[in-house]
Amino acid sequence: MTTTVAPTAAAAPTTGKRPRGAKLVRMLPLSPAIGLMLVFLAGPILYCVYAAFTNMALTGPGAANVKFVGLDNFRKAFGSGAFTNAIWLTLVFTLISAIIGQNTLGLGLALLMRKSTKVVRNFVGTAVIGAWVLPEVVAAYLLSAFFNDNGTLNVILHAVGLPGQDWLYGAPIIAVSLANIWRGTAFSMLVYSAALSEIPKEIEESAEMDGAGGWRRLAFVTVPMITRAIMTNLMLITLQTLSVFGLIYAMTRGGPGTKSQTLPLYMYEQAFSFSQIGYGTAIALVMLAIGAVFSLIYLRGLNSEAA
Amino acid sequence: MIARDRMSKLASNLVLLAIGILFVLPLLWVLFASINRTAGLRVELPTHPTLQNFKAVLNTDTTYRPVFNGIVLCGGAALLTMVCAVLAAYPLSRFRTRFNRPFLLTVLFCTGLPITAVMVPVYGLFVQLNLVDTLGGTIMFMATAALPFAIWLTKTFMDGVPISLEEAAWVDGAGNMRALWAIVLPLMWPGIAVVLIFTFIGMWGNFFVPFMLLLSPERLPASVSIFTFFGQYGEPNYGQLAAYSLIYTTPVLLLYLLLSRKLGGAFALGGAIKG
């Protein structure tokens, strides 16, 4: 990347052929994008920072006169069982469905596909990508049917002599995590297929010649060569999973009770069902902070890679 | 050695097939239920296949208007995203200034932000600006949410068009925008198509944004109006729900097929993700 960029960057000023004009004029095409992002992205985030420290509400005293309440919203959040429950469920959901599920399954699929016959590869690829392309709510309905007491999963379990259960009531966070794996694995699979296709064949062959078995090759040759893809993928799917709303909302509405109420659902309930905008934005701020921490780790990784 | 290779190939195939079947099972339900008049929740082959469910949902209120709304909303937002992304990518790709790197890092940073978290203040902003329940406002927000990733992708594709071609145009006196329109864009249309289709597919499935920002039933896109199948009267009609889901999914399936056949979707995406 740097080698292809360097010559043009160096050559451009010396040729002197580019149209003259103030730097600002050249940068003018950026303005529509910057304008939209300032109004609809930066604005709301700043507003979020402000509202999180107020008692803003859609109804009641907070609606008439908005007051600063300092850290009250955050104190209330971290002192509340429902909030800590939501944080806990969000972490479980992200860990099971993204970091373990989508990531490992996606890598596994990409690896297996290199060794399989074309028909099988196409069949599996189409099935996995089909699940990914489906609109969020449709996917949620398909999986609600799948996990239902009378659904397909229990039919299969009974057929092999295992006890079934009403997954959406008995183990809702597991059900929505599996649903998110079903829906999201295609992304990791595509990223890893692309990354694996760029490893030169000779490297793996020579490792094989040196007597490295399948698992050793995987651990010491293949995985180290795609570390960058792994990091990028982990970060993107972690952030996507952190903000999943529609899938869980359509499958369980966060219930039964609060058993699958992750942070986005808790925030939605507080801000809109209970009209506590101030408190809701405080939760949103916590989510943004979690996302920002992940983004910063990712950017650090990218920067150290470039250096 | 060869026997072991064959064994490992067979094992890979079997494991893949098993995973593939697990992925297909939920999809089978929607296919079978859509042609089954008495569809329940389990996968079953209908004894008397019928198109009755499709007939029942193919009317203005249930299907035509929500799908049309979705096309207006997502099409409009995807086009707006694309125009802004191409314009923004040009100076970022062509001129090197001190401003580029911080801006690109900010854009990358924004792709990571959970948009869900911004929805509460965005709703507040929309109330202030009187934009709640307007298509225009929703289009602008959806376009903004998709912009960071679209700028990043577009710039990656634009970097692939050699700058020497434009230098010739500049000598002939063409301005930047003219060079972009006449030289760069025609050479990167596959990239443009990838970004546009990915943006559209992402928006078509998006539930939360229109769910929050639009209220009137006659403005709701298909991703939200699907909730009308769950009335207050207990069990929804699963067959009709399945038929509707299929109709609603068809546009993105076709677009994805177009993408992967013509343009090699996997590699385009993979290449872009590498940054």
TrEMBL record, chain A:
Q: Where are the transmembrane segments?
A: 27-53, 86-111, 123-147, 167-192, 234-252, 272-299
Q: Which Pfam families match?
A: BPD_transp_1
Coiled-coil boundaries? none
Q: Which domain of life is it from?
A: Bacteria
Give the record's membrane topology: Multi-pass membrane protein
Keywords from the named record: Cell membrane, Membrane, Sugar transport, Transmembrane, Transmembrane helix, Transport
Task: Report the residue ranges that make up the ABC transmembrane type-1 domain in this protein.
Answer: 88-298
Q: What is this protein called?
A: Multiple sugar transport system permease protein
Organism of provenance: Kribbella aluminosa
Automatic annotation (TrEMBL), chain B:
Task: Enumerate the InterPro entries for this protein.
Answer: BP-dep_ABC_trans_perm, MetI-like, MetI-like_sf
Entry membrane topology:
Multi-pass membrane protein
Q: What subcellular locations does the record give? A: Cell membrane
Q: Which PROSITE patterns match?
A: ABC_TM1
SUPFAM superfamilies noted in UniProt:
MetI-like
Keyword Transport listed = yes
* Family the UniProt entry places it in: Belongs to the binding-protein-dependent transport system permease family.
- PANTHER family with a match to the protein in the record: INNER MEMBRANE ABC TRANSPORTER PERMEASE PROTEIN YCJP, MALTOSE TRANSPORT SYSTEM PERMEASE-RELATED
Q: What is the protein's name according to its record? A: Multiple sugar transport system permease protein
